[in-house]
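G., the chain you wanted modeled:
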Amino acid sequence: MPDLTKTAHEDAANVVAGEPVSTDGGAAASKARSLGADAWRDLRRNPLFVISSALILLMLVVAAAPGLFTNASPTIGDQANHFLGKPELTHFFQADWFGYDRTGRSIYSRTLYGARNSILVGLGVTILVTLFGGLFGMLAGYFGGFWDSLISRLTDVFFGIPFLLGAMVVLNAFTNRTVWVVMGALAFLGWTQIARVMRGAVITTKHADYVMAAKALGAGTKRILFRHILPNAIAPVIVVATIALGTYIVAESTLSFLGLGLGGGSISWGGDISDATQDIRNNPHTLIFPAGLLSLTVLAFIMMGDAVREALDPKLR
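Predicted structure as tokens:
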């Protein structure tokens, strides 16, 4: 016979933690899974997630160690021998696989090395906007009142600034546009969406029974925010951040294409696409390969975001 007193105490603890309450003496609770466990089980069975994860993992490895895939220099060219050389599609992983640009540089090598800066900017901006936007949204949603009005009006002001145009204005003020400068400019203008998503999730979560129970038991504000509210409000933020990551990669490439992105001879997909526009009619390979890898990477992150959204949203199950 189950110990009813022990079971009641366990159920009370589960309410405070936001976990399912057992109704059959503990047997159901032992079988219950958290939202994270259910989401991970669904993700592993989703072909969209498996394919996108494999592509993203490959791109991360390429960005971290492009030298593992080629020994050709991305900056040194031989214009006399390789001026706009055509691709040799059977020369796998060799310098001439994707052909050469107008300065005799290997397009294959530049495409691999360009992944580093483009993906680094995308990941860095996503982390920054998630941290700062999530924090502002959590404060606005939980405390309400003055803080909600202040942060909401600040968010409205930033929403009124066109994202790319604002980034161009900010970056134009810097002569040395490093990776960190570009990341800071995009994060400065891009935190608003995450803040609004987090605010709405926190407003919904803070009225849940387990939050009320935690307050009744005397839990402090810090514990309630980071122990009870944040874990249960983070799901929509993860979805938005995953999809937005691809958007930030495109934004960096667009700025580099316009000449306002990475400077100082930094290699990026946007810069190579910009250089290729003057040869696109007679030598389309100079544009196809960097643009194709950019599109594939962004597509992989969007696919992953869709898969995560389906796994974390109960309405889509």
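The longest helix spans residues 107-143.

Shout if anything looks off.
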